[in-house]
Amino acid sequence: MLDLSKLNKHQLKAVTATEGPILVVAGAGTGKTRVLTMRVAYLIDELGYDPQKILAITFTNKAANEMRNRIATLLPNVNVPWIGTYHAICLKILRKNVDTIGYSSNFTVIDDEDQSLLIRDIYKQGNISQKDIKPAKMIGIIEKIKMNDVGVETISTMQQLKELGIFSFEDLKIVKYVHQRYQAKLKSGNILDFNDLLLFTHKILKENIDIRDYWQKHFHYILVDEFQDTNIIQFEILNYLINPKQINVFAVGDPDQTIYTWRGAYANIFNDYLESYKNTQVMILDLNYRSTKNILKVANSLVSNNHERIKKDLSTDNPQGVEVVFCKSDSQYYEASFICQQIIELVKKEKYQYSDIAILYRSNYLSRFIEQELMSNSIPYYIYGSLKFYQRMEIKDLLAYLRLMADDQNEIALKRVINVPRRNIGEVTIDRVSEYARKNNMTFAQALALSLRMDVEITWSPNPIMQFLKLIHQLKENTQKLSPSKALQEIIKVTKYQEYLASLDFESRWDNVNELIAAIEYYEAKNPEGTIEGYLQEITLYTDPTEIKKARDQSVSLMTVHVAKGSEYRVIFLAALNEGIFPVAINGQTTNLEEERRIAYVALTRAMERLYLTCSAGHSFVTNAPLYPSRFIKEMDTKNLKVVEQGMKSISDVDLSWYDSKSPATNFEDNYNKDAVAFQIGDTIAHVVFGAGVIVGIKENLLDIAFKAPYGVKTLVKNHKAIKRMKS
DNA sequence: GTGTTGAGTATTTTT
DNA sequence: TACTCAACAC
Question: Could you say which nucleotides of strand B lie within 7 A of any protein CB atom?
C-alpha cells in the first residue's frame, strides 16, 4: 500500500488526478520529483497499470537514474517503467523504426569526441584550417542548422549569417561544405549524432501514421519532468506520442529554472502546452519543503532581479536555519582550502556524511583546483559529468577494438586504434588512405586493404598496415566463440594494451579497464546470450557502469549547476562566484544575464540546510585574469549573510593575492586606487589586465613593471586605477 | 614519414 | 592546466 499521507493537499491532487492533461507549475523544492515518482507508483500500484505502458521523461541521465531508484524503492517487486531522457527514449524508438528512413537498426551514435574527430577529418580533406572556424564551433553551427532546419543554401543576408554565429560569406562556404560532408559521412557509416536521435524520431512519427499510432497505443501515461527546458522538437515528439483519444499527459516545470535556452528551451512553452491541450488542469506548488528560510531568502532575492519573469516568492514552514555563509578568499587556492576545511568540520562536528555535501560550479574546468585540495585532504569525492566513464581514452580504445570484432569496416573504430598501441602508422598514411577512399568512392576499410597493393600508391611501406589488418583478422577469429568479456581480455592480451598504458605512465587507468571488464561481465550475467554487438548497443547512451555508482555513496559530489538540477543536498557549496566565471563572460562580455541568474538560482535552491557561497580574488589559475566577486552577490539579500575572509597566510602565495580584504565584496570596484602612493622598487603589484608584477623602476609618475610572460616589462602610469598595490 | 618537444593559446552549460 | 601546432630529430 502506497503511503500518500505525507503529501500536502496540492501534492495529493497532483498525484491522484490521473485523467486528462495536467500542468504543474512547481517552484524549486516544492516536491515535484516526489509528486512525479508518487504518481508513477500510484498509477502502477493503485490503478493497476502496466509499468511498460508508462513513460517518464527526464532531462538528464542523473535524474532518470534517481527516479528509477526511487520507484524501485517504493515498489520493490515491480518492473520499472520507461524512464529516460528524450534522447534515450528516441533511441529506443529508432532501434525499432529507423529502417523507414533508410538507416539500419544497428546504427551507432557518436559522442562529442568522435564528432570532433570526424569534423577534423573533413577539415583535412577539404584543406580547411582549424583557425578558420574551430571544430567545436563548427559542431555548434551544424547543430543549429540541423535543429532549426536552417536552409543553408538560401542564406543571403548578414543577419542570417550572424544568427548562425559566422561573420562572412567566405565562412559560409566552409560551413556549407563541412555540413554537407558531415551528413554524408554519417549516412554512409550508419551513424547518428545526438540531434539525429530527436530529428529522425520526429520525422518518422510525423510521416508515418501507423508508427505514430503504434506508439500512441503503447503509452497510456506520459509524464515529463523539467518541462521548462523542453524545446520545440522535443515538444512535438511528445505531442506525437500522446494518444489524442486519451490525453494522459502530466508535465511539471518551473519557469525560474529554465537553464537550457541555448538548446532551444523557450519561455512560451507553458502557453504552447495550454494551447495544445485545451482542458488542461493547472496546479501550482509553491510551498518549499527543501530549504531553510535563510536559504530561500537569499535565493528569492537573487532571482527577483530578473525582469522577464512572473513575480513569485517561494515560502517555507521550515526553520530559519543557520546563516548562509559567504567566503571571499585571496586566491582560488584559499577558496578550495576553505571549502575543504568546512567539509571536514561539518563531518566531524555536525555529523554530516560526505554524501550530504555537494560542491557546485558554473563550468567543468573549475573542478580542478577544488579537486586538488580535496585530494590532499583525503576527502572522498566524485565528479559528475566532466569525463564520463565511457568517454575515457582507454575505454574508448578498447570499445573500438570490440566494435571491430563485430564490424571490421567501422571507420571511426579503425582510425581510433590503427596506431594504438603505436605501430608506425601515422597521420600522413591515414590521411592518404582517407583521400584515396574518397576519390575512389569506397570505404576507408576498403582503401586500407587496397593500400597493400604496390600498384596502388598510397604508402611506401605497407608492412605496418598489413600487420594491423592481420591482427584484426586474427583477433576476430580468436574471439568469435568467446563471450564479450573474454573477447576483451583476449584483445588486451594480444595488443599488449596493459603494457601500452604503462608505457604512457597511465598505470592508474588500468583500474578503469578492470571496471569495464566487470561491467561487461555484469551485462553477460543479465543477458546470457549477449553478444559484443548487443553490449555495444546497450551502452550507447550510458555514461557510467553501475559499479561506479557505489563509490559515489560515500563521497562529496562535485558537478556543474546544470547537472545538479533536480537534485538536493543538505549542504551546498557554490564555488567560484566570480565575475566572468559566474555569470560567464565570453571575450569579456556577459550575455544572457537572466539565464545566468536562473542558473545561480537553481544552484542556491539545491541546498536544504546549509549554503556556502565562495569566491576568490587574485588571478584565475587558468586565464590569469584578475578576479572580482560576482555581481550576483551584490544582488542577493545579504543582511543575513555571514561573511568570512580567508587567506594571506603564506608568503609563497603572495604574488597571487592582492585583494583588499577590508573592503566589502559589494563595492569591489571602488578600491582600486586607495593606496597608490609610495611605491618602491621590488614591490609586488597587480594589474587588471597583466596580472601580478614586480616594480623594477620608478620615474616620477611612471613605473616600470615586470609582468609574467607574455607581457614582460611595461612602463605604466603610477596612479592609474588599473594598478593595484598589494598588501604586505 | 613518424614521433617528440616547446611555445603559444584558450577554456559554458548536455544529450 | 591541457590542448594544438609548427619545427626538428630520427
Answer: 1-3, 8-15
Buried b (16+ CB within 10 A) or exposed e, A597-620: bbbbbbbbbbbbbbbbbbbbbbbb
Q: What is the pTM of this model?
A: 0.83
d(CA A14, CA A255): 18
Amino acid at A130: Q
| CA of residue A424 to C1' of nucleotide B5, angstroms | 19
**Nucleotide with C1' nearest the A543 CA:** B15
Say what the pLDDT of residue A546 is.
Answer: 60
Q: How sure is the predictor about A238, in pLDDT bands with cuts at 50, 70 and 90?
A: very high
- Name the closest nucleotide to A369, judged by C1' and CA: C1
In the structure, how far is the CA atom of residue A255 from the C1' atom of nucleotide B5, in angstroms? 52
What is the model's pLDDT at position A308? 84
Arithmetic mean of pLDDT, A521-534:
92
Residues 622-661 of A with CB under 7 A from strand C: 622
- Is strand C less than 7 A from the beta carbon of A504? no
For the question of residue A257 being annotated catalytic, the response is yes
Q: How far from chain centre, in Å, is Cα A635? A: 27
CA distance linking residue A312 with residue A303, whole number of Å = 10
Residue range A77-125, pLDDT digits in tens: 888 899 999 999 999 999 999 999 999 999 999 988 889 889 988 888 8
- Active-site residue (options: A11, A30, A32, A356): A32
Residue–nucleotide distance: A94 CA to C4 C1' (Å): 37
Q: Is it true that the peptide bond before A421 is cis, omega within 30 degrees of 0?
A: yes
**Non-local CB neighbours of A217 within 8 Å, separated by 6+ positions:** A243
DSSP A229: G
CA distances in angstroms from A584 to A45, A165, A342, listed in the order given: 46, 18, 26
Q: Establish how many alpha carbons lie within 13 A of residue A202's alpha carbon, considering only the half-sphere containing its beta carbon.
A: 18
Q: In angstroms, how far is B11 C1' from A631 CA?
A: 21
| Sheet strands side by side (includes A702-707) | A713-717, A702-707, A691-699, A684-687, A723-725
- Please report the pLDDT score of residue A454 as a whole number: 66
Per residue in A490-503, pLDDT (tens digit) is 999 999 999 888 88
What would the pLDDT profile of A64-89 be if each residue is shown by its tens digit? 988 998 999 888 888 889 999 999 99
What letter does residue A176 receive in the DSSP assignment? H
Q: Does nucleic acid strand C have an atom less than 7 angstroms from the CB of A673?
A: no
**Residues of chain A (120-139) having a beta carbon less than 7 angstroms from strand C:** 129-131
pLDDT for res A487:
96
User: Residue A95 has what pLDDT?
Assistant: 96
User: Is A33 noted as a catalytic residue in this protein?
Assistant: yes
CA of A240 to C1' of C2 (A): 44
